[in-house]
Specification:
Oligomer: single chain
Radius of gyration: 18 Å
CATH superfamily: NAD(P)-binding Rossmann-like Domain
Bound molecules: NADP nicotinamide-adenine-dinucleotide phosphate
CATH class: Alpha Beta
Strand content: 15-25%
Helix content: 40-55%
Strand order of the largest sheet: 3-2-1-4-7-8-9-10
Largest sheet: 8 strands, mixed
Distance between the termini: 44 Å
Number of domains: 1
Structural class: alpha/beta
Length: about 300
């Protein structure tokens, strides 16, 4: 438990800042449910894997390579299927989709957890800025390719971040996805996380009239490998301060686990959560037109590359 959690209360859901993934799944029997999770080998994804399996779920656990996915699965035991999914490579995402389809299980949830943050220099992948491409386009391709396999009451959970509030002033820079007009590690990370949220919003709209849901979330600030691109001094400061001021990894995994499996959020869609309760996005996060334009743009990008 982090120090801060001792001073933060619980919200209307009965959970809060200090709730862990184990807390939010206490008493739930997830046997018979199959959940696809990206980024299963590290940080809050690995904890999410551990807890879902502990509660009886079958987790299709995706990592950049099969070896990494296998190692994570071996560590947690239980019912898992490791799968390779390099999100920045559409052929790898398509291969992952083929594996999931071949397994044939309806998906109770897809948790889009994998991500990269604040790359110091601009990297392009297939002509697009790498954080946008990995965090958003990779997941867009994965999820849209598997919509037919989502259970009737299936849930899509997009791991966004409060960093979406630091996206460029105009929101998604549709005319600068290759950053020819400039790159900022944090603003571009924020843009990719805004895209995660807007994708959840667009999906939620598409799911209206069904029992399927899509939501996004901020997991909190947690010391994980995500900080690997930050400068070494900031990383040392983070590791010293983490137990005092940041969420622990079990606390960080709570909100995505809650959204993926808790009965209280059945039927809730198009919302942004933090600390296992509904929270607030930036104005861009409420922009339906931007969500729709992002959907069209993402479909065009995916069509170009696949
Ligand atoms: N930690 C925080 O404070 C914080 C705050 C807000 C939001 N988030 C979000 O939480 C999510 C999980 O982050 P974390 O903190 O647990 O970080 P982490 O420990 O670095 O885990 C990130 C995961 O994403 C995977 N990944 C990265 N690039 C990938 C790619 N191209 N293809 C497939 N998988 C890829 C990583 O695989 P490798 O290990 O192979 O690189 C790793 O499994 C991210 O979406 C992040 O944006 C975190």
């Amino acid at each position: 438990m982090s120090l801060v959690s001792m001073f933060k209360g619980k919200g209307p859901s009965g959970f809060g800042y200090g709730s862990t993934a184990e807390d939010v799944t206490e008493g739930l029997d997830l046997s018979g449910k199959t959940i696809l999770l990206t980024g299963c080998n590290s940080g809050i994804g690995k904890e999410t894997l551990r807890v879902l399996v502990k509660r009886g779920a079958h987790v299709i656990a995706a990592a950049r390579t099969l070896d990494k996915a296998q190692a994570a699965c071996d560590e947690v035991g239980g019912e898992t299927t490791p799968v390779a999914c390099e999100l920045s490579e559409p052929t790898s995402v398509q291969a992952c989709v083929a594996v999931v389809k071949a397994l044939g299980h309806p998906l109770s949830a897809i948790i889009c957890n994998a991500g990269i943050m604040a790359l110091p220099k601009l990297h392009l992948q297939h002509g697009y800025e790498l954080q946008f491409f990995t965090n958003h386009i990779g997941h867009f391709l994965l999820v849209t390719s598997l919509l037919d396999q989502l259970a009737d009451d299936g849930r899509v959970v997009m791991v966004s971040s409060d960093a979406h509030k630091g996206a460029p002033k105009e929101g998604i820079q549709f005319d600068n996805l290759d950053c020819h007009r400039g790159y900022s590690p944090w603003a571009n990370y924020g843009q990719s996380k805004l895209a995660n949220h807007l994708f959840a919003k667009a999906l939620a709209k598409r799911f209206e009239g069904t029992k399927k849901t899509a939501n996004s979330l901020h997991p909190g600030v947690i010391h994980t490998n995500l900080a690997r691109s930050m400068n070494p001094i900031a990383r040392v400061a983070l590791s010293i301060g983490a137990p005092l001021v940041l969420k622990s990894i079990p606390e960080g995994a709570a909100t995505q686990t809650y959204l993926a499996v808790h009965p209280a959020v059945a039927g809730v869609r198009g919302k942004y959560f933090a600390d296992c309760n509904e929270s607030y996005t930036s104005a861009h996060g409420r922009d339906d037109a931007m969500a729709e334009k992002l959907r069209e743009t993402s479909e065009r990008i995916v069509a170009e590359l696949t």
